[in-house]
Amino acid sequence: MRLAVFAALLWTARQEPPPGAATVAPKADSPTGGIQEAIDKLAPDGGVVVLSPGEYLLRQSIRVRSGVTLRGVGEKSVLRKSKQVGSKLTAPTEGRSARVENAEVFREGDEVAFYDRTTVGWFHGHAIVTGIRGNELLLNKNPGGKFDPANGGAVVNIFSAIRGVGTSRGAGLSGVILKDLTVDGRSDENPGPSVVAPRAPGKPAELGFQFAAVNIMDATGLRIEGCRVRGWPSDGISVQRGSGNTVTKCVVETCRGPGYHAGGGERDSVFFENEARGNLGDGFYFCAKVTRVTVRDNKFIGNKASGIGGLGEWGDRENTVENNLCESNGTSGIALWDGEGNTLKNNTCVNNSQREPGRWSGISLAATQGTVLSDNVCSDRQATKTQKHGIYESPNCRGNTFTRNDCRGNAQEGLLLSGKDGRQDGNLK
């Protein structure tokens, strides 16, 4: 394992394939364009797979394991999602099969998602179609849970382009490198699950992080560098439940969920020099129990929710958000909720609240405590201002510190702090 990881890191630095690297060209008869077959032929401790220029049509996820480096040539190596197909269920799922209204739209080898009107997050199902018998899909495994047509149960061919899952929390998957890859969700051909069966009011329209374009869980020493994701029918890059991971120099745009998603107890990891543009969710989304994660030197522009959202949600602590640009996003530049002990410094939040002018602020805090905000610039530079306040703190906050923040030039008062036991010094408003 150590030798394989060292060789991959050395090659990454030199920009040359190490001896023994496998080179792949697109294969039309493979559900992963020939990539999974190349990974499966690597030694047990991993190795390097190089993608030649071309378009690799995906009908199921590429599954990476420890010590594997997957590398392309930027925009020339494209992992393209297959066209969306789906059907409503006609009977509750049971065992390794599913009865649907129309099985003709599926093919053997398709990876599919199971959902209903109310399922979210971990409660959606996964399986691969191994055969078709009339209107019955034969599956490689039980998709998990009971998906019932009475509750809007349906199946759709949504999956991750690249998926890696460890065997236990924070362990089991190590030394994976993803570099210079392009993932294209073909948004024109993949309108999302609600087209197949509607979601309940108040539930996310999309299926979430389990179906992110790049979906890595329980990893250590992961590095995702120089990758581009566009138009994926869920989140862009999701890193969950791991530690010591790095995501850098990536671009995620026009995905149907957040651009980047850190959650499930992710810790001691760093996201830097990335971009997220035009995604339907947050540019960067903090989710449950994220600890000591650094988000710095990134650009989050024109996303439909916040530039950075969910910071503090479900116990996020001791995270650092530094030197990011959050510009022209739909809601807040940075949104904090229900967290403690996080740090925001040297961020620029300008021209936000585009979705509803005058409602959201550059930085918004709710139910937040013990958090430090310093040297941030939160202003609106438009002729018609949309960003409500530079920084807004709701009354249910406590013990936050605000120093040297420049909050001049917003639609309303630059700094509106209503929390208890806070401290402020040297702010411009």
Number of domains: 2
Would you tell me the structural class of the helices and strands? mainly beta
The CATH superfamily name of the largest domain is Single-stranded right-handed beta-helix, Pectin lyase-like
What is the level 1 CATH name of the largest domain?
A: Mainly Beta
> Order of strands across the biggest sheet?
1-2-5-15-19-22-25-28-31-34-37-40-42
CATH hierarchy: architecture of the largest domain: 3 Solenoid
Kindly report how far apart the N and C termini lie.
55 Å
Give the strand tally: 42
Radius of gyration: 22 Å
Which fold name is given in CATH as the topology of the largest domain?
Pectate Lyase C-like
> Beta-strand level of the residues, as a percent range?
25-35%
**Unreliable residue stretches:** 2-14
Mean pLDDT: 94
| Count of discrete alpha- or pi-helical segments spanning 4 or more residues | 2
What percent of the residues sit in helical stretches (DSSP H or I)?
under 10%
Describe the structure in your own words.
By secondary structure, the protein is mostly beta strands. It has a 13-stranded parallel beta sheet with strand order 1-2-5-15-19-22-25-28-31-34-37-40-42. An 11-stranded parallel beta sheet has the order 4-13-17-21-24-27-30-33-36-39-41. Helix 2 links the parallel strand 1 and strand 2 (47-51).
